[in-house]
């Protein structure tokens, strides 16, 4: 993974010094509240219901063991001993004191971490597929491009005060999209043209929140060397023409819709024509230099451990289930990709304690070349595990709560912190996730249902991606009381779509029953291998409505 | 506009006056000292103003600097207004004036100009800053230089860090 050089280190240190100075001026009142606001947000610091909240960037979700250990120490020394993995592959602390934040940032900088641009109206942390580099179906490793974007977007002088926050995601697999690129402000799909040259298909104007939208393609093929100049053109058009009169209409999706995707694309092309050949154009050397940080780890030459695994599976049913659900194939023979689901019933999705962070660090060191990735489903990935050590790994993780074999099933819920932590919430979301997990605690039944994305947000901001859940749950407020609205048919993958609202909302205690009825309809109507989404798309929303509101 | 900060951090006396856009039906009232007038009005009175080194123009954040086209270097000063420090359009306007239209004379940031935005302004091509009067002008030099370098190419560095690293 990427390692800082002197330039990066110096910039990181200067950033910490700058924020220390800004915080001091804020504390003495020299900086007004509203003047400090964007500065602290650009350093990851929210002011929340219970305390400040600090969002720490995890570029494209990758971390080294030492970084996890440092996070663990920070949660212990400055917080209440736990942290939260978010749907943007970041880490959040819920209780740091404002005065401590410069020290926390200094500690993070020591291990090449930061909280730059994790909030505020600037270019946010670029996200990607958590299996990058380990899968055989990717066009090219997306991480070097994410790192190139990270550097370009860090303290970009022109784009620090955009109309609204701005998110970029990159996906490299042709078969699947684990980065939800079509619901980002810019979604980049790595592709090759007829001649085999590498480039990107560019989606612009996707996003969730109040006006959820799937981002249309504005350019079918952008050569890789043109990545940054083209991004600069898109951002410049947005910076100049995006609406600033209304916060809810300020996202780029509104501009793209107003101009039409074609009209928007024309404006971008016109802008790009001027800067296409500027020094910001990438060079093959620059790309190779970054790629050199993402070379393969020191894999052993192995054969697939097919027989061994078959034997171990046969002897241990729980291990068998975990292998089937949480372990993916790897591009290298003899290796596997393991997902640790942070979805043990009773623990809020994504929550980790300081001890667990250290456990994960140990697992990374022991089993996966010292590296992990955070996923946008709030899970953790060990990307390079030897197949002949899977059983040992599984035996290690079950007692510490990471062995829940429910990846991609109904109980692998994506869930925002909701009313328990978030000042913006209309309703709690964590107890809803838990109630549904309790209701569906029979693993065999869960597996029979196949892949289902259940996503829960505590308000319209959609931090839990409810719009793109196959089943989406949204907390709504009705005269001061908490209710939950359901949508069906959303998807964040290559077939991205926004879910359709089922009808009137429900009380919290009814939620497990309502979900059970929805699932019953699916079980009744499905044919053969159909997934929930397939069935929904075939039969439409009516049968679900009829059953749920009967 | 008594004190203005220069990009090197120095502070100087200055007597350019910013002339507000006249209300409907009123005409432009130019004072007897160097004046910055709305760019479209300068264009409208082009014959009258051309060649004067005591008349510059200003853009508001929603204005399009494209209207000046190739005439930018006929102006001694162009100012860009930041109606609110959080309105970032002025940064794009500055880069366009510098990089697209080749404006080589003084580019000035006016309006809600605060300390923590100075370095961004400098990088986008502004070379003088009319700091909001309640801010401590003596801190400007430090705020202009929090960072010793940037990742991107901008008007201050034409070579992005990735090219510098490669060489
Ligand atoms: C507790 C503190 C949090 C606050 C105050 C907060 C606030 C917000 C707000 C205001 C938005 C809406 C932006 C818009 O309309 O475009 C938003 C969007 C979002 N948040 Fe959060 N959030 C919090 C925590 C989280 C967490 C824990 C996650 C991940 C689990 C998260 C992930 C997201 C995502 C992915 C979006 C984007 C939805 C989109 O594409 O428009 N947030 N958040
Ligand atoms: S969706 Fe709403 S309730 Fe949930 S974290 Fe985001 S802002 Fe808070």
Automatic annotation (TrEMBL), chain A:
Annotated ranges, domain Nitrite/Sulfite reductase ferredoxin-like: 53-111, 346-396
MF terms (GO), sorted A to Z: 4 iron, 4 sulfur cluster binding; heme binding; metal ion binding; oxidoreductase activity
Protein keywords: 4Fe-4S, Heme, Iron, Iron-sulfur, Metal-binding, Oxidoreductase
Signal peptide interval: none
InterPro entries recorded: NIR_SIR_4Fe-4S, NiRdtase/SiRdtase_haem-b_fer, Nit/Sulf_reduc_fer-like_dom_sf, NO2/SO3_Rdtase_4Fe4S_dom, NO2/SO3_Rdtase_4Fe4S_sf
Nitrite/sulphite reductase 4Fe-4S domain span: 119-274, 409-548
Keyword Oxidoreductase assigned: yes
DNA-binding recorded as keyword: no
The protein's name in its UniProt record: Sulfite reductase
Lineage, top ranks: Bacteria, Pseudomonadati, Pseudomonadota, Gammaproteobacteria, Pseudomonadales
UniProtKB/TrEMBL annotation, chain B:
Protein name as annotated: Oxidoreductase
Gene source species: Marinobacter salinus
């Amino acid at each position: 993974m990427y390692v800082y050089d002197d330039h990066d280190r110096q910039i990181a240190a200067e950033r910490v010094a700058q924020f220390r100075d800004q915080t001091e001026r804020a504390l003495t009142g020299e900086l007004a509240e509203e003047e400090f606001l964007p500065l602290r947000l650009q350093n990851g610091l929210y002011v929340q219901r219970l305390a400040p909240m600090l969002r720490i960037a995890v570029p494209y979700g990758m971390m080294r063991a030492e970084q996890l250990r440092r996070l663990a120490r920070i949660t212990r020394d400055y917080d209440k001993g736990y942290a939260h993995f978010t749907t943007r592959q970041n880490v959040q602390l819920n209780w740091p004191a404002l005065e401590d934040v410069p020290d926390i940032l200094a500690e993070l900088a020591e291990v090449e971490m930061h909280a730059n641009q994790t909030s505020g109206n600037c270019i946010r942390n670029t996200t990607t597929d958590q299996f990058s580099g380990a899968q055989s179906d990717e066009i090219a490793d997306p991480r070097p491009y994410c790192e190139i974007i990270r550097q370009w977007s860090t303290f970009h002088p022109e784009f620090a005060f955009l109309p609204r926050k701005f998110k970029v995601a990159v996906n490299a697999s042709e078969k699947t999209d684990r980065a939800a690129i079509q619901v980002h402000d810019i979604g980049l799909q790595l592709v090759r043209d007829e001649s085999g040259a590498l480039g990107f298909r560019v989606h612009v104007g996707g996003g969730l929140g109040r006006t959820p939208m799937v981002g249309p393609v504005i350019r079918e093929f952008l050569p890789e060397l043109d990545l940054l100049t083209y991004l600069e053109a898109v951002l410049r058009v947005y910076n100049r023409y995006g609406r600033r009169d209304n916060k809810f209409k300020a996202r780029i999706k509104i501009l793209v819709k107003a101009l039409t995707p074609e009209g928007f694309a024309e404006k971008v092309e016109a802008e790009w024509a001027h800067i296409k050949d500027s020094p910001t154009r990438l060079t093959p050397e620059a790309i190779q230099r970054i790629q050199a940080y993402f070379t393969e780890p020191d894999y052993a030459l192995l054969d697939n451990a097919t027989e061994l695994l078959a034997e171990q599976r046969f002897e241990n049913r729980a291990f068998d289930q975990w292998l089937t659900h949480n372990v993916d194939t790897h591009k290298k023979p003899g290796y596997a990709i393991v997902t640790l689901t942070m979805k043990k019933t009773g623990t809020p999705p994504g929550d980790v304690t300081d001890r667990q962070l250290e456990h994960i660090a140990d697992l990374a060191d022991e089993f996966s070349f010292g590296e992990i990735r955070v996923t946008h489903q709030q899970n953790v990935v060990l990307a390079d595990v030897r197949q002949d050590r899977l059983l040992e790994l599984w035996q290690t993780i079950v007692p510490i709560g990471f062995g829940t074999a429910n990846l991609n099933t109904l109980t692998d819920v994506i869930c925002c912190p909701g009313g328990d932590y978030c000042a913006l919430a209309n309703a709690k979301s964590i107890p809803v996730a838990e109630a549904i997990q309790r209701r569906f605690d029979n693993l065999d039944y869960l597996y029979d249902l196949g892949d289902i994305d259940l996503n829960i947000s505590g308000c319209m901001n959609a931090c839990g991606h409810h719009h793109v859940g196959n089943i989406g749950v949204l907390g709504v407020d009705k005269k001061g009381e908490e209710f939950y609205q359901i949508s069906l048919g959303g998807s964040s993958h290559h077939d991205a779509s926004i879910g359709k609202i089922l009808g009137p909302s429900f009380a919290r205690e009814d939620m497990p029953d309502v979900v059970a009825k929805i699932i019953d309809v699916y079980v009744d109507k499905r044919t053969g291998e159909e997934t929930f989404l397939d069935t929904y798309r075939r039969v439409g929303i009516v049968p679900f409505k009829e059953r749920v509101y009967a | 506009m008594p004190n203005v900060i220069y990009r090197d951090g120095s502070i100087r006396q200055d007597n350019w006056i910013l002339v507000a856009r006249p209300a409907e039906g009123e005409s432009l009232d130019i004072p007897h000292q160097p004046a910055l007038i709305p760019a479209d009005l300068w264009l409208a009175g082009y014959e009258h103003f051309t060649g004067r080194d005591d008349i510059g123009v200003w853009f508001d954040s929603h204005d399009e600097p494209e209207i000046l086209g190739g005439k930018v270097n006929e102006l001694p000063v162009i100012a860009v207004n930041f109606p609110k420090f959080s309105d970032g359009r002025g940064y794009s306007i500055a880069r366009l004036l510098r990089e697209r239209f080749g404006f080589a004379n003084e580019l000035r940031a006016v309006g809600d100009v605060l300390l923590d935005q100075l370095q961004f302004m400098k990088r986008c091509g502004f070379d003088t800053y009319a700091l909001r009067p309640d801010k401590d002008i003596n801190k400007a030099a430090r705020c202009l230089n929090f960072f010793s370098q940037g990742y991107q190419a901008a008007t201050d560095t034409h070579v992005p860090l990735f090219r510098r690293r490669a060489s």
